[in-house]
Amino acid sequence: MNNSPYRKLIEQSRSTVDGDSNWLITMADVMTLLMVFFVMFLIARQAENGSRPAAGNSAAVKPSADIPAVSDSKAENGIKDAIALGIRQLGMEKDVEIYTENKDVVITLRENITFTPGKAVIFDGAGSLIGRIADSIQKNPSYIVEIDGNTDNIPIHTSRYPSNWELSVARAASVLKCFVDKYGADPSRFYIRGNADRKPLVSNDSPEERALNRRVEIRLKYIPESRDN
């Protein structure tokens, strides 16, 4: 019996097994290398994490962006304190309020120390306070000034002021004129606005509440870019 065909099949199967075995050996080598690489990667990551400072320590270092905010706060407190001192020296604490809002310094002047009801001619006493404010503004070029006139909700209708809109604008303009004409303030740093009765502090249900709403607000707005101007 001729066994040559079977012999060929046996030889072919041996060569196939040898080829498969070689492939398996190659894959085993690759897997071993990957395992070693993974272990080394984990060791490197652990060493890196161990060299980093703790979260609590890193938070103690403030970024440089926080530095201007500290300077801004000092400027805000400085100008507010200077104006508050002037208010006390003039004995106007009951009729003038000063406070900060964000980085703005807001000074509120009640009508009874600024204007006759229905008029827009500023009192001399209010002019003295404006002089103190003007001095602080001139020493702090990082501020621009918004002057808002506000009325109560009682309608006005005269030949000079047909409505509370005109009266509120005229009062803001009178304060601006005092800043510029009497104290030499730079008009380019000012702007005015008349609100009439649209921004009340309280309701207008009583004479006392309406008196609180009749006011002029001088808002010193912080503009960092103006430092270099």
Concise structural overview:
This protein is 52% helix and 15% strand. The protein is of the alpha+beta class. Strand 3, helix 5 and strand 4 (190-194) form a beta-alpha-beta unit.
Share of helix, binned: 40-55%
Biggest β-sheet description: 5 strands, mixed
CATH superfamily of the largest domain: OmpA-like domain
Order of strands, widest sheet = 1-2-5-3-4
CATH class of the largest domain: Alpha Beta
Could you say which overall geometry the principal axes of the C-alpha atoms support?
A: extended
**Quaternary structure:** single chain
What is the tally of beta strands? Answer: 5
Q: Strand portion, in percent?
A: 5-15%
First-last Cα distance: 113 Å
Structural class based on helices, strands and sheet pairing: alpha+beta
User: Any idea of the CATH topology of the largest domain?
Assistant: 60s Ribosomal Protein L30, Chain: A
Count of the separate structural domains: 2
Low-pLDDT runs: 50-71
Commentary on this structure:
The protein has 229 residues and is of the alpha+beta class. The protein folds into two domains: 4-59; 68-228, 2-Layer Sandwich (60s Ribosomal Protein L30, Chain: A), CATH 3.30.1330. Helices cover 52% and strands 15% of the residues. It contains six helices and five strands. It has helices spanning 4-51, 55-59, 66-89, 124-139, 164-183, 207-213; strands at 96-101, 104-110, 143-150, 190-194, 215-222. The chain has a five-stranded mixed sheet with strand order 1-2-5-3-4. Strand 1 (96-101) and strand 2 (104-110) form a beta hairpin. Helix 3 (66-89) packs antiparallel against helix 4 and helix 4 crosses helix 5 (164-183). The radius of gyration is 40 Å and the shape is extended. Mean pLDDT is 79; it is low at 50-71.
